[in-house]
Amino acid sequence: MNKYTHRKTVLAAIIVCVCSIYIIRLFYMQVIDESFQVKAMLNSQRIAIQYPARGLIFDRNGKLLVENQPAYDLMIIPRQVKHFDTTELISILGIEKETLKKNLIRCRRYSAFKASVLISQITADKYAILQEKLYKYPGFFMQTRTLRKYNVSHSADVFGYIGEVSQAQIDRDSTYAMGDYIGISGLEKTYEKVLRGTKGEKILLVDNHNRIKGSYKDGEHDKPAIVGQNLTTTLDIELQEYAYQLMKNKRGGIIAIEPKTGEILLKVSSPGYDPQLMIGLERGKNYKKLDQNPNKPLFDRTVSGAYPPGSTFKTLQALYGLKLGVITPLTRFECYGKTKTSIGAIRMGCHNHASPLNLYQAIQQSCNPYFVNVWRRILESNKFKSVRDSYAEWRKFVCSFGLGTQICPDFSNEVSGLVPTLSKYDQKLKTENWQWSFISSVSIGQAEILETPLQIANMACVLANRGYYITPHIVRPFADESDKIRKYTVDAERKHFDIVVEGMAMAATGGTARGAIIDSIVICGKTGTAENPHGADHSIFMAFAPKDNPRIVIAIYIENGGFGAQYAVPIGGLIMEKYLKGEISPRKKPIEERMMNSNLIEPVALTQELRLNTGETKVVKN
């Protein structure tokens, strides 16, 4: 081979190599590396997510409480964005320049090629202005969404609210993408997977100005969205609205339950707030104001507030004392009223009443020394080796009422309350050789015992049903949730329940709960006054009616309301009468007016500004 032939061979080899490199590179770019294909498609196509309408929420009578309304998100594809007039854009949207800047950075970090939400929940009027000028903003487009619309101005603690999904939530569930909405609290959170539905996709053809020119292949590859399922709550919304009016300018919680079914008829956490405040561009500012309000409207007092049950707890002490056999209905103990009564090493005060009292009368008059004596007999019972062992058995009994645990499947923010374990008290008392007097305040529902208003209401359900309760719930279960609602039975004889119930009926006719009396209906009630080291005592009332075949159970906890008879009892009586009779009798109208106009909260500017617990209501749609 001469040198010319060799050169030709080398040159040919170089040409072949160069051509091969180009061919391989082109093959890689067009076949293997999808990013170039994506870039090309993005220039002519856009995948528009079709968001399903969220499921609706109704009350027990079919009234529409929560529906949807149209809203719009301003979307952005960072790679396609060119220089734009930021001043004009923030003026149209009514946002701060820093907010726009921060959101732009977030979208760029998420993806340069994928669309993400720049500004969410834009109202129809701002959308109309922006839509006309969107041609000046390459890389931007509008996406239609649905937002919640609340047909009542209260019950935010029940419904909860929705917000933008976080990156951590996206990492846990790939169903979501940046800019999607998710239930943050209340039923919106608990039933998120039911309410949200399934997203669809629509492939659109766009021109070089990002303007829509039609559907890709006439929608052949589109995926329709599937609407979310509806929820039917057990709420009686008219009763709920009435309760909110009575709780105007008061802090506390009310729970009412239909005892035979466990269905929650009303759930009021006061002060509340208008759930519509958590919708739209102002939701962030509104949340901040709510969070800073000293009356804590974001705090759900019905299931997250754990309080001493006070004298309502005496009903359980009486029941267990009868079950254990340490007392009978006719067992009597002395009480010296405000002078204080000595029980061993303990001196216990009370209000002045006749003495001595039997068990019926002790429940009627809510006698403190009586139940301290019962507690002493329980803990010193010769059926157990020690006070500690006796307490362990007693604790099992009271926990069977649903105390010390979460009992409602519908609220993720429910707390367990507290019935201290043996180890807790061992640690506190620094000994296992307990004396009954070490924990004497437990006898009257003070000290370490803590219950939520929901648990107090559930406790009353067991008494109303004479020995059982049904899982309390605020959403009627779906067909595939047959195990959601269960019956729980308490180990005590019917005759013992009848004794306690009779004492509660006496309390409502001539005792501490007589302020709740309803004409022609026998109610059973038990008042409570919980000591509060930070201010006035808390007012408590637990009741059910009618006495036989009860239709409603109620628990009311009013912070700083004083004696149970001052506020909780009259409010409870009015609510039960409203539910059972449909109206308030003329003789109780002055009581109704006094409860609605009484104010137990110091004036706060934010209360008026953000419509906290105004007592105003909206007419719900049928």
Explain this structure:
The chain is an alpha+beta fold. The protein is 35% helix and 17% strand. It contains 21 helices and 19 strands. The chain has helices at residues 3-32, 34-44, 86-93, 97-110, 124-133, 156-159, 167-172, 186-190, 192-195, 237-246, 283-292, 314-324, 359-365, 368-379, 387-399, 422-429, 453-464, 494-510, 568-581, 589-597, 605-609, and strands spanning 45-50, 57-58, 64-76, 116-122, 140-150, 162-164, 181-183, 200-206, 212-215, 231-232, 252-258, 263-270, 341-343, 346-348, 468-470, 487-489, 524-530, 538-545, 552-558. A hairpin with a 5-residue loop joins strand 2 and strand 3. Residues 604-609 and 613-622 have low confidence and may be disordered.
In short:
The chain has 622 residues and is an alpha+beta fold.
Distance between the termini: 99 Å
The structure class reads: alpha+beta
User: Any idea what the shape is?
Assistant: elongated
Our Rg estimate from Cα atoms comes to: 33 Å
Ranges where pLDDT stays below 50 over 5 or more residues in a row are: 604-609, 613-622
How much beta, percentage-wise? 15-25%
Query: Could you report the average pLDDT, rounded to the nearest whole number?
Result: 88
How many helices does DSSP assign? 21
Number of strands: 19
What's the arrangement of secondary structure elements?
Layout: H1 3-32, H2 34-44, E1 45-50, E2 57-58, E3 64-76, H3 86-93, H4 97-110, E4 116-122, H5 124-133, E5 140-150, H6 156-159, E6 162-164, H7 167-172, E7 181-183, H8 186-190, H9 192-195, E8 200-206, E9 212-215, E10 231-232, H10 237-246, E11 252-258, E12 263-270, H11 283-292, H12 314-324, E13 341-343, E14 346-348, H13 359-365, H14 368-379, H15 387-399, H16 422-429, H17 453-464, E15 468-470, E16 487-489, H18 494-510, E17 524-530, E18 538-545, E19 552-558, H19 568-581, H20 589-597, H21 605-609
Parallel strand pairs: 2-10
Antiparallel strand pairs: 1-8, 2-3, 3-4, 3-5, 6-7, 8-9, 11-12, 11-19, 13-14, 15-16, 17-18, 18-19
Helix pairs in contact: 1-2, 10-19, 12-14, 12-18, 13-18
